[in-house]
Amino acid sequence: MSDKKFTPFIAPDQVMKEFTWKAVITGACFGIIFGAATVYLALKAGLTVSASIPIAVMSIALSRLFLKTTILENNIIQTTGSAGESIAAGVVFTLPGFLFLSETTSADYFNYLTILVLAIFGGMLGTLMMIPLRSALIVKEHETLPYPEGTACASVLKAGERGGNFAKTAFSGLGFAVLYAFFQKVFHLIAETPSYITAQTNKYLPSAKISGEITPEYLGVGYIIGPKIAGVLVAGSVLTWFVFNPLLATVVPPDVIASQLIKLGYLKDLHTAGGPGGWDPTTHQFADFATAIYRAYVRQIGAGAVAAGGFITLIKTIPTIVSSFKGSIGKIKKEQSGTGQSLRTERDLSLKIVLWGILALILLMAILPMLPGNGIASKLLIGILVVVFGAFFVTVSSRIVGLIGSSNNPISGMTIATIMGTCLVFIAVGWTGKVFEPMALVVGGIICIAAANAGATSQDLKTGYILGATPRAQQVALFIGAIVSSIAIGFTIKVLDTPTQEMLQSNIHHAIGTDRYAAPQATLMATLIKGILSFNLDWQFVLVGVAIAIVMELCGIKALSFAIGIYLPLSTTLPIFIGGAIRGWVDQRKKSSDNTHEEDLRQGNLFATGLVAGGAIAGVVVAFLSANDSIAKNLVLLNMEESITHLLGEQGYFLLGTFIFFAMAFVLYRVAMRKEESL
User: Which residues are CB-neighbours of 547 under 8 A, at least 6 positions away?
Assistant: First the structure.
């Protein structure tokens, strides 16, 4: 196999400081910071930012200033810190749903202790289940699963270690992205999501929409994953926005779409304006018909496709997983016999730790009083469901981030599938009352956190594999990061949930769920649980997604990649595709060049890495600045969008942003075409 030819940056027999308290404590501090930022972003808009690369960049800077850490210590810093972002995303996407369930008493579970326990359980589960999967997904599929952010993070750390032009290229990309992002996110000189939508009455493509979130990080991710994956990804989005949307816009009246949005919890009633697409109760029309259709119907189709694609992927991966488990068992036997000492870079935590850890999690879920349930027996069932769904979606999540990166991991789609499966089990055993809704949310919440953390863990382990890190050290660091971050995440959520005086006067006791912190993902999860347990879910849309995934697989197309494209908006997949297209063009023009150069240290990859890092860092900084009300008000004064729109018009503003984005893409292309520096 080709993975045998791979040589890590640090040789397995080389002795170097790695797991030190200096590195762990620094990483834990970063985990707290990025976890808090993610909580804010996810509550506001359902979005997250990647943490590993920004932390890696910061660790290099701190190392040069005063920490004097090695490259492997810097890897431990980013590994420990990355847990904060992933766990925060999983928590915020689900657990605020306690506030929106049928029984008002369900809100009592939205307390600090319950949030803390569920966050730790989900974080632990994601890391535990990735231990036996590392060999199968990270090592054996090193060349087939790029893990773009993990590869990019390794490139950053290696560039920082090498210095010279390697670092210069990576950090020039970072600086370019930061400058671009601040002009976009602070001054709004560059439109964030240019879009064009056809009229509903259009004869050929009614309510078709083309849009792109023209950010440096998406362009960089696309370049890293390459044209093949990026092409399949955008194809799924094209099916959504140029086939499903025009078709449904033709046959489904606006009032029916609005009623569907009400059913899903996006819109209060037909007499209330707003919701996805901008419903107007006076004209009975949507300002953005395409978005309304997407939220009302297509996301359910996408969720079904993701679930089916994930199941197909799991079936295809079973032989690899089985061999990985056999390898883990073989390691245990060797350890017990005292023979067969493995290389440092092959030492994982024992499979016994995984098994005992999972058993402990099930038992704790059964006895802890702060978790919902009708006795030990019902809580045991919840624990078993968590482990079953966890084994499935941890694997799926790892493979997804291996293809397109953690930033685009459709965690909400996997959570939706988990909630559907859990509710069906509940129905099968006769649990259909409102009292069971919080129990279903617990399963969905833990799986969401576990899947998110598994994705981040996979990227970290990929980084470690490229660098020559000790897997065992990384896995311990991940456990520490998960616990520390969970403590801070729960605290941050409760602080942000504190109602203002105006809210209290209006008898509103939670800031989460208001316009201040809408928590859109959690609202959807609660709505699904209520709909399924009350036998009020549109299964026909879910099954359409399942059928599409099967058809794609039969056609020889990777169903999971295509399904992700259906679920994600075109605004996400299109800029990723542009980055992938540039990579394909560069590879085609440089196909006769020397192929012995390390792939992740090529000029294009280094600059793309910088774009991803810079965009993520800028997003976090802006999130922190926006969290302070006084600073947020001053940032509004810097917003030039209205002035530019007044001067150029909305479409002119969009065209200006698109032009600047393509200018950035051209810079990436020129850097990638430069002659490679010899190693």
Answer: none
Contacts of 235 (CB under 8 A, 6+ apart): 562, 565
The position carrying tokens 């520390």 is: 484
Both tokens assigned to 187: 């001054």
**Cβ neighbours, 10 Å, residue 640:** 15
Structure confidence at residue 596 (pLDDT): 43
* Residue 502 maps to a domain: no
Distance of CA 262 to the CA centre of its chain: 27
8-64: pLDDT as tens digits: 888 888 888 999 999 999 999 888 888 877 787 677 655 565 677 778 877 887 887
CB atoms within 10 A of CB 509: 13
Please give the pLDDT value at position 321: 58
Cα–Cα dist 259/603, whole Å: 52
| Of 66, 63, 84, 85, residue with least CA distance to 74 | 63
Number of domains making up the chain: 1
- pLDDT tens digits for range 124-171: 999 998 888 888 788 887 877 888 888 888 888 887 776 656 667 777
CA distance 549 to 100: 32
Q: What is the pLDDT of residues 507-553, one digit of tens each?
A: 778 888 776 676 767 877 887 788 788 777 787 888 999 999 999 99
The mean of the pLDDT values for the chain is 83
d(CA 270, CA 157): 54
Q: Where are the beta strands (DSSP E) in 192-324?
A: 195-197, 209-211, 279-280, 285-286
Residues 198, 205 contacting (CB under 8 angstroms): yes
Give the whole-angstrom CA distance, residue 669 versus residue 281: 48
Residue range 329-358: mean pLDDT, rounded = 73
The full 3-state SS of 475-500, as one line of letters, equals HHHHHHHHHHHHHHHHHHHHHHCCCC
Pair 471, 416: CB distance under 8 Å: no
User: Residue 3 corresponds to which tokens in the numbers above?
Assistant: 């993975």
Helices (H) and strands (E) in the chain, counts: 26, 4
Alpha helices in 46-101 (DSSP H): 52-62, 71-94
* pLDDT confidence band for 180 (50 / 70 / 90): very high
DSSP secondary structure letter of residue 138: I
- What lies within 8 Å, CB to CB, of 47 at 6+ separation is 41
pLDDT tens-digit profile of 251-267?
999 999 999 888 877 78
Task: Provide the β-strand partners of residue 285.
Answer: 280
CB atoms closer than 10 angstroms to residue 66:
7
209 contacts 290 by C-beta, under 8 angstroms: yes
Q: Each residue of 517-529: pLDDT tens digit?
A: 767 678 778 877 8
Q: Is residue 116 part of a domain?
A: no
Range of the domain at 661: 2-98+121-493+525-672
Q: What residue has token string 């012995």?
A: 596
How far apart CA 153 and CA 469 sit, in angstroms, is 13
Is 662 within a domain? yes
Is residue 633 assigned to a domain? yes
Burial of 438 (0-12, 13-18, 19+ CB in 10 A): buried
pLDDT of residue 2: 46
Which amino acid makes up residue 334? K
Tokens of 526: 């609660």
Three-point CA angle 33, 39, 40, nearest 5°: 95
Report the amino acid identity of residue 230: A
SS (H, E, C) 247-267: HHHHHCCHHHHHHHHHHHCCC
3-class DSSP state for residue 556? coil
Closest C-alpha among 220, 198, 217 to residue 208? 198
Single-letter amino acid, residue 281: P
